[in-house]
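Hi Prof. W.,

I finally got the LRRNT domain-containing protein prediction working! I wasn't sure whether to trim anything, so I left the full sequence exactly as given:
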Amino acid sequence: MLHLTSRFVFCALLASVYASCPPRCECSEAAHTVKCVSKDLRSIPKIPGYTRNLFITGNQISRIGPESFRGLDNVTTLSLSNNRISEMEFHTFSGLFRLRSLDLSNNQLTVIHPEAFSNVSQSLRELNLSRALYNYSSVMDLAASLQRISMANLQVLDLSDNSLIYLPSPKFCRVSIKQFIFEMSNCAVI
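And this is what came out:
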């Protein structure tokens, strides 16, 4: 019985790594890439475990949470731009231990849970939030999220074109970023 259970678990793990390409998406196992571009998706589809580069852009996804990226521990590049995402839940990116580049530009973020970025803080190098922060509370949520975690390796934070009036300086000053982009935001640090 134990042998049969072991074989079942092994097959389940193998199936998750070699899952088929989601409907309406383009996949290249050789390039470790999945693209779901302008497919009118309402949620993140089941993505093959071999994926390193994931592009889900131009869709109708309103929220993302920890279940959105389960089993994708090889992903290094994640683009979620232009999806109308308004909510990032608790531990949204928790399984993405190798994530280096995250693009959330051109969304409508109104709620960013303070622990949305937990567990990616050591690997994340680039975070693009240009044209994504929808209101004052989303800026405060982002600041709280960045303050709670160590983003020692974050090199680029793009907050451009968010119509920011000010940044909550004590929170953003604790983040050591090599390139901090906020052009066209008319921003003042208070």
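Residues 2-189 form a domain with the Leucine-rich repeat, LRR (right-handed beta-alpha superhelix) fold (CATH 3.80.10.10). Does that look reasonable to you?

Thanks,
D.
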